[in-house]
């Protein structure tokens, strides 16, 4: 049996996926979580062969958890399953050590087949997304620029952002200015929106 951990924050979607995958003769759902903070502890407890992770979760993102699983539980392969087919997300997933990346609009049979292929050591990537990622190029933002933009998401002031990321207001302004330039936008909220749409945050 292929043991699978399922991380999905929408209860109905999580239940449906667990039910449908559980109908496969060779797949067993050994753990389900709705919060990104629970992924690694549950995986260490249940020892799955595959972690099927959403990206946008309460707590830690599936991408952060994927990177952690690579070091804490190297025998567990990660398959990202997301609504958001963004090129930047695909790049970050591969950098985090994910073995596969699929969007949620495909049939469950394709997902079951992808789980088997990933377990066999293959890489499984949505073809349209792979092409988009290649044409989009790498993330132009530095880690600090991403930190500052992430802190600016809710319309926070420069002083609020500075306190959150432990930098001076002048340094925050420099990073915001650089991020606005790199995203070719007019202000920080547009920069946040552009960075999110590309999966850079």
Automatic annotation (TrEMBL):
Stored Pfam families: GerE (PF00196), Response_reg (PF00072)
Organism the protein comes from: Streptomyces hesseae
Domain Response regulatory residue range list: 3-119
Domain HTH luxR-type per the UniProt entry, residue ranges: 134-199
PANTHER family: TRANSCRIPTIONAL REGULATORY PROTEIN DESR (PTHR43214:SF42), TWO-COMPONENT RESPONSE REGULATOR (PTHR43214)
InterPro entries documented for this protein: CheY-like_superfamily, Sig_transdc_resp-reg_C-effctor, Sig_transdc_resp-reg_receiver, Tscrpt_reg_LuxR_C, WalR-like
Keywords: DNA-binding, Phosphoprotein
Protein name according to UniProt: Response regulator transcription factor
Modified residues (4-aspartylphosphate): 54
CDD domains (UniProt xref): LuxR_C_like, REC_DesR-like
Top-level taxon of origin: Bacteria
């Amino acid at each position: 049996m292929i043991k699978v951990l399922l991380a999905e924050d929408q209860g109905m979607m999580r239940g449906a996926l667990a039910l449908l995958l559980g109908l496969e003769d060779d797949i067993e759902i050994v753990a389900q979580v709705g919060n990104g903070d629970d992924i690694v502890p549950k995986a260490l407890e249940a020892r799955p062969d595959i972690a099927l992770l959403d990206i946008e979760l309460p707590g830690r993102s599936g991408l952060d958890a994927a990177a952690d699983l690579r070091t804490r539980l190297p025998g567990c392969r990660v398959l990202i399953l997301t609504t958001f087919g963004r090129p930047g997300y695909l790049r970050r997933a591969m950098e985090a050590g994910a073995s596969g990346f699929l969007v949620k609009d495909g049939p469950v049979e394709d997902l079951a087949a992808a789980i088997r292929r990933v377990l066999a050591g293959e890489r499984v990537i949505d073809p349209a997304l792979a092409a988009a990622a290649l044409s989009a190029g790498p993330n132009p933002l530095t880690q600090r620029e991403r930190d500052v933009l992430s802190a600016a998401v809710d319309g926070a002031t420069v002083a609020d952002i500075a306190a959150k990321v432990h930098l001076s207001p002048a340094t925050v302004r420099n990073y915001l200015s650089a991020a606005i330039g790199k995203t070719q936008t007019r202000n920080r909220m547009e920069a946040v929106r552009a960075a999110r749409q590309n999966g850079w945050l």
